[in-house]
Every structure is written in C-alpha cells, then in structure tokens.
Amino acid sequence: MSVMALLKRLLRFLLSVGLSLPVLDRLALAAVGGALELARPWLRRNPYRFITFYKAVRIAFETIRPGDPTSDKRPVALAWHALDRRLEDAIHGYLESEPDPYRVRAINRKIVEYEADQRVERVKGFPYRIYIELTSACNLRCRMCPQASLDVLTPVFLDLDRMEEIEPVLRYVERASLVGFGETFLHRDFRAFFERVSRPGLTTRIISNGLLIDDDLARFLVEKELSDLWISIDASTPETYRAVRGVDGFDRILDNIRRLSAIAAELGRKPPDLSLAFAAMRRNIAELPDYVRLARDLGAVGVYLSYLIVYDEGMRNESLYYDPETSNRFMSEARDLAAEFGIAFHGPPEFDPASMASGGESASSVGDGQGYRKCREPWEYANFNCEGKVVPCSTEYAQLGDLKEETSFAAIWNGAKYRAYRRSLSSDRPSKFCVNCMMYAYRGVNDPESHFRILSKTGELPE
What are the pLDDT digits (tens) for 85-129? Predict the structure, then answer.
C-alpha cells in the first residue's frame, strides 16, 4: 500500500472518530467559519475568489470521503455528511452577513455554476433565476394554449402571504419573472407583489398579452422601473390576431404599448425594454417579417420566436412541421430584417427538409438521447406556481415543495425531493417531461417529438 493511500485511510479514520464527538463537530464548523472570516478582506477585493475557496474545500472533502454519503451509513460517510453541513452553514452565514447585494449575487452565481457543473445534489448556492406565477386566470383563450383544450380550469390566485417564504431567496436572485399559465396583470395584488420583488440589482420581467395596460398601469410600470416587458401578439394584422387569439385586440395592444412609451417620455424616465413574442404556426408564419418591422416601429429590442407546440389534436395541422419550406423562407427573411434593424432575434433552428424526408432526426443523430443530462434548471432556477407549490421548471409539473407547509424555501431547495430530482438528471430514468424537454433534451426541429405534446383533457401528458 502506498504512502498516499495510508494517509487517506488515516484521514478517514480521524474524521470518523473526530466528528462523532460533538465538541469537535462544533470546532469543525468554527474552523470553516473562521477561515471564511479571515479570508473576508481577500474575498472582498474580488468576490469570484470565493468559488476558489469553495472548490478547494470541496476537493479536500472529495479526497477523503468514501463513496456516496447519501446511501452509505458507515461512520466515515456520516462524518463526511456532517462536515459538508458545516461548510453549508459557513457559506450561508458568510453570504447572509455580507452587506453588498451585488457581491452576494456574484458569489452565489459562481457557486451555482460550479455545483451545476459538478451535479451536486445538496447545494450551497440558491437559484439566481425565479418565476413567480401570480395566477392561472387569463382574459384570453388562445387557440395554441393548453388552456383552450382543458375541460375544467378553475382560476387560482397566489396568496400575497406566500411572499414571506419567497422574499429571503430574492437576496440571491438576479432575475425575477412574474409570469405563468395566466395573465399576470389580472391579479388584484399585482402591484404589491411587484413592489416586494423589486430591489437594486435585480432584473424584473413580465410576460403579458398586453390588453390590460391602461394609463395607470403604464405609469406604475415606468415609475417602479420594470426592467423587461414581453408582449405576446403572434400576428402583424388584426385579422390574424383575431384568428389566433380569438378577440379583436390587435389595435388596442399597439395603442397600449405606445401609451407606455409616451408616459415614460412624459415622466422623463426609461420605459421597460420591450420584446415581442411570436408562436409560429401555419396561420401566421407569412407575417413574421412584418412582425419584425412592427417590433422596430414599436421600439422593441428583441423578437422571441418559438415553433407552435401542439397540445391538442385540433391544432395538429397548424404545426410548421408539415410545411418546413415555407417556415424556413419566412424565418430567414425575418432574421435578416432583425439584423438590419439591430433587433435581437431569438428563435430555434430552421428545418432540414432532406432529413425530414428520410424520417426525421433520430436520437443518435442529435446526441445520445440524454440531453437532459445538460439541464441546469434545478440548480439555477426555481418556479413558484400560483398554488404556492415549488416546481422545477416551466414545463415540468412535479411538486418539489409547498410554501404553505415547509418552514422555508431553503428547506425545500435542499429537501429530499429536490435532491432526488437533481440526481435523476444524472441517471437513465429522469422525468418523462425531461426526456421530451424543448430546451435540453431537444431532439431537433426535424423530429416530430419536438412539436407534438398532446395532453389529456385534464392537462396530463400521457405515458
């Protein structure tokens, strides 16, 4: 046996014996915490050095820990588990005591990025992006939305009291989006939610259909410095808007957007950065170039395009999967126009008709079929739905915690369900939503799996 192997064995033995004694366990916490305090001046000069400290401690732990501490009950494994908690407590204590919110966010992001890379299950960092769904209620029934095909939909509104559990994590959040299944501006407490979310250094985003932005609301959004406003219109003519959205609201939305800009100019303030969203389908794809022109005329900074995802059989023939050449022609023209106008154009790849003619992309042609292993959402992101439940992302409905039942979000974030969910993304048996994820497990635009997710009448994805 080599000298190094003997030293490792000795370290493991000393750790297992030492941390079984309460006094030494507390000394371990004090030692890690003391090291952080001694390093504070060094860390303050460059907050990104913090992650170097974290990596160094974690590498030291990895050197002496014996296997998986979540399943191994031997004294050495339990000792590793205890020491890892000491590091967690020390890091959280350091971040909670740091007065500079910008430094806190910078350090937290570095921790999260490292933990996502390493697929750490029990994390020290907190999400730096969050969605807060205020309501499932909506003033529209758009043809492409899952709401249009559900048999029963009872509107739910998030209780303002739930902010008590959400607010602590805002210390670490870089971007908070008030968005979800419904229309955010329908919540009677929207302004109270927005004021409690807003704080220096945090980007705020709202996604809306734009119909409810009157003078009073526009003034509020400008005065309270909303960062980003995304408006979903999906058309460049009143006729197509009516066909897609089911109401005559096109001109009213444009008036609302212009009113927002006029009120900002009147107040001498900057309006929110405007982006227009476009769900591309057969019915509206020919209007995409004019949609980019409309974005320019309205002063938008970006256009966000997505292919229609078919949730209901009645919308199947609207999918551009069945008309790839037409889709490519108009998307290419729109991209060129956006570049000419200096507007950011965000959209998926164009179709490859030759690949589609041969049967579409297989999993092997776009990877190993396990793209979900690249997913970083359970480390970087948290979604609070309107029922007060915490779910992993905007397309996965697994409930990983309940704000009304848990003592804190931190307890949910490192609870058994979240840890198991992170672990599943490194396994061969993830959630069915993860396997068909439009972001990380994307099979390619030429594969029908990327375009059709037919739901049951109760909103479930069949096995």
Answer: 767 877 788 788 888 898 899 889 988 998 999 898 989 999 999
Q: pLDDT per residue over 438-451, tens digit each? A: 665 455 688 787 78
Other CB atoms within 10 A of residue 207 CB: 20
Residue ranges of the alpha helices (H) in 170-323?
190-197, 215-223, 238-245, 250-267, 288-298
Model pTM? 0.84
CA distance 156 to 354: 46
Instruction: Please tell me the distance from the alpha carbon of residue 250 to that of residue 230, in angstroms, as a whole number.
Output: 15
Contacts 24+ apart (CB under 8 A), 393-401: 394/131, 394/180, 395/433, 395/437, 395/438, 396/431, 396/433, 396/434, 396/437, 397/433, 398/431, 398/433
- Nearest in space to 195 (alpha carbons), one of 232, 170, 229: 170
163-174 b/e with 16+ CB inside 10 Å = b?
bebbeebbbbbb
Give CA torsion, residues 404, 405, 408, 412, to 10 deg: -110
Q: What are the structure tokens assigned to 333, written together?
A: 């023209």
